[in-house]
Design goal:
Helix 1 packs antiparallel against helix 3 (58-68), helix 8 (235-247) runs antiparallel to helix 13 (354-367) and helix 15 crosses helix 16. Helix content is 36%, strand content 21%. The strands form four sheets. Strands 12, 13, 14, 15, 16, 17, 18 and 19 form an eight-stranded antiparallel sheet that branches. A five-stranded antiparallel sheet has the order 5-6-10-8-9. It has helices at residues 9-19, 28-31, 58-68, 120-128, 146-152, 159-162, 197-201, 235-247, 260-270, 290-306, 318-329, 331-335, 354-367, 394-413, 429-436, 438-451; strands spanning 24-25, 48-51, 72-75, 92-95, 102-106, 111-115, 132-133, 169-175, 181-185, 210-217, 219-220, 224-232, 254-259, 280-288, 311-314, 341-344, 347-348, 371-377, 382-389. It folds into four domains: 9-95, Uridine Diphospho-n-acetylenolpyruvylglucosamine Reductase, domain 2 (2-Layer Sandwich); 102-220, 2-Layer Sandwich (Uridine Diphospho-n-acetylenolpyruvylglucosamine Reductase, domain 3); 224-332, Alpha-Beta Plaits; 339-449, 2-Layer Sandwich (Alpha-Beta Plaits). It is an alpha+beta fold.
């Protein structure tokens, strides 16, 4: 990891006075854990780390960084997969994990107010105690923070039916680039007063402001749920089944796809009883009223059979259903055991192009002589081609770069997007103009300059 310039001593002393000496890290060994996130092959040590314990400490820290002209990178658990929280040289990392309090649950109004460092899964667990449900479920939900979810507008397995983080954010407390604190949004279900500024900050990846509190919408917990697993001999059969389910106007809770490489790795990792000789499999989950669940289950089984499913397994109980879902959630971790470097890509295409996109990825892997496993949330068109490589192999990494360009270009040719849920960050910023065009790309930069004229908040992310 590259060393980083130290911060001005006056700034460090001011931070220690504000937060306490133990909350400001400057020693090289202490900075190492803050020099990378979940993205492969991206590391850079910060100049220092400031760990806040109260939301009202964030504004003064940001104001100090602004006063000294020091770049500031906010960070939660560091599970991001686009380099969004990787430091820049000489920056101050603002650690938000200790802002982990659930401030209010309001069952009557179906809302929950939390601090930015609260772990995502804990929000749903708290909601469940009141018979309620927080649907967004990124793969890293056991360790990811809600602030990071808001910054990246995270999705997850249930995104097909329930949407992404943006769909549940009703209000935000945000610290702006100069340290000013604002509240954006409202507790009301309907509110059209002025610009929807909270939506501007959701998915902004910490480049416009730093989220300190989040007001979230909750839903009634589904009365019934059923999980199915369909096995196919061919790669394209599984992808086509997903497209056919959506075309039949069925919107299940979860509709997930795994190719053979992923199946074998996941089974070796999770021992969930997956068929390792299958060409692909589709995990389907339907929830809601019992009668609706039963009908959707039967219709999806029929479509899977029509596409040549060799086997369809219905989870016998909740424990088996949870085991199958947990196996799918382990896909990234399971694949990461195969090679020293695992690059998890993230593209989305219209669902009518799913089978063609899955086939194209396989052809790209063959063209560049690479091992690429594919899985993802195919119900909403979101694919995760996962490149298994070794960042120490310079020649192979060049082929990886060419493969990523081909995958992105193919997704855009299908009228898709360069990222469905991981964000732009460092990993995808080279492709953003290709998707948006010159005018829209320039508009984004104008918004950034307006809210952060000195370019101090998470610089270098989304665009240079």
């Amino acid at each position: 990891m590259s060393p980083s310039p130290s911060l001005p001593s006056a700034l460090v002393e001011s931070l220690r006075s504000l937060l306490g000496p133990e909350q400001v890290l400057t020693e090289a060994i202490d900075l190492v854990p803050y020099g990378f996130d979940g993205t492969a092959a991206m590391k850079q040590a910060p100049g220092a780390v400031a760990l806040v314990r109260q939301t009202d400490e964030v504004g003064p820290v940001v104001a100090l960084a602004h006063e000294h002209g020091i770049p500031l990178v906010a960070r939660g658990s560091g599970t991001g997969l686009s380099g969004g929280s990787v430091p820049v040289p000489g920056c101050l990392v603002l650690g938000l994990n200790q802002l982990n309090r659930i401030l209010e649950v309001d069952p009557a109004n179906l809302t929950i107010l939390v601090e930015t460092g609260v772990i995502t899964q804990r929000i749903d667990e708290e909601a469940a105690q009141h018979g309620l449900f927080y649907p967004p479920d990124p793969g890293s939900q056991k360790i990811a923070t809600i602030g990071g979810n808001v910054a990246e507008n995270s999705g997850g397995l249930r995104g097909l039916k329930y949407g992404v983080t943006r769909d549940y954010v009703m209000g935000l407390e945000v610290v702006l680039a100069d340290g000013e604190v604002v509240w954006l949004g409202n507790r009301c279900v309907k509110d059209v007063a002025g610009y929807s500024l909270k939506d501007l900050f959701i998915g902004s990846e910490g480049t416009l402001g730093i989220v300190t509190k989040v007001l979230l919408k909750l839903l009634p917990r589904p009365a019934s749920r059923r999980t199915l697993l369909a096995t196919f001999a061919q790669l394209e059969q599984g992808a086509q089944t997903v497209s056919d389910i959506i075309a039949a106007k069925i919107i299940p809770c979860t509709l997930e796809f795994l190719d053979q490489t992923t199946i074998r790795c996941v089974e070796d990792f999770s021992k969930a009883g997956l068929p390792v000789d299958a060409g692909s499999l589709v995990l389907m989950e339907t929830d809601g009223a019992e009668s609706v669940v039963a009908e959707e289950c039967d219709r999806m089984m029929a479509l899977a059979k029509a596409n040549g499913a060799s086997d369809i397994r219905v989870a016998a109980n909740e424990a088996e259903a949870l085991s199958l879902a947990a196996a799918r959630r382990s896909a990234f971790s399971a694949l990461a055991r195969l090679k020293p470097t695992t690059i998890l890509e993230d593209v989305t295409v219209p669902r009518t192009h799913l089978a063609a996109m899955v086939k194209a990825i396989a052809q790209i892997a063959e063209k560049h002589h690479l091992e690429i496993a594919t899985f993802g949330h195919l119900g909403d068109g979101n694919l995760h081609p996962t490149i298994l490589t070794d960042e120490r192999d310079t020649e192979e990494m060049e082929r990886v770069e060419h493969a990523i360009k081909d995958i992105v270009s193919q997704a855009l040719a299908f009228k898709g997007t360069i990222t469905g849920e991981h964000g732009v960050g460092l990993a995808k910023k080279a492709f953003l103009r290709q998707q948006l065009g010159d005018a829209s790309h320039t508009l984004l930069k104008r918004v950034k300059h307006t809210l952060d004229p000195n370019g101090l908040l998470n610089p270098g992310k989304i665009f240079d």
